[in-house]
Amino acid sequence: MIKAGSSFFHNGKRCTTGAVILLKGLPYMVTVSHIFRGEGDNLTVDGMKLVVTRILKGYDIALIKLPSDTAVEITEFGSPAELELAVLVNDTRTINYCRVANSGASLLFLGFQCHDMPDPEDSGTPVLQGEKVIGMMTSTTLDTCMGIAVSSKILRSLQKIKNYY
Known about the structure:
Thrombin, subunit H, six-stranded antiparallel barrel, four-stranded antiparallel beta sheet
C-alpha cells in the first residue's frame, strides 16, 4: 500500500513519499521535486514504473499520478502547532525529536537534536503532529540543526487548485 512515508526508487536511490492525495478523484503521490530532473522522469513505486506528472518548482513539490486501482492510504492533514514537538516518519526510520520553531503560509521551520538529523534520502518524509501530516521535509542545515518543510497548508491546497495537474 502506498501512503505517506512509503519508499519509492529513482535512479537507484530510495526516496520518500510525503503524502497521497486525491485530485479529481484519482490518487496522486506527493514528494519533493528537487530529486527529479523534471516532468516525465521515471520512478518505481511498489514494482510499478511511473513518471513524474507535474513539478511545482516554487514549492519543491512533485506530483505522480497513480493508477486508479492502486492500494493507497489517503493522507490526513493537520495544522502545525508552533513550538510543539513533531515526528518525521518513513518506512526506514523515525526521528522522534523535532520541534516546529516557526510556521508560515507555505513553510515550516524545524529544529532537530544535532545528533539525530534527517539524512539526504529522508527528503520528502512527512512531518507529523498527533499522527496527522503537518508538512513534508525538504532540506536541512547541518551547522544549525534546522530544517525546512513544505507546510500542510500547501499540500492540502493542491486538492483544490485545478491548474496544478
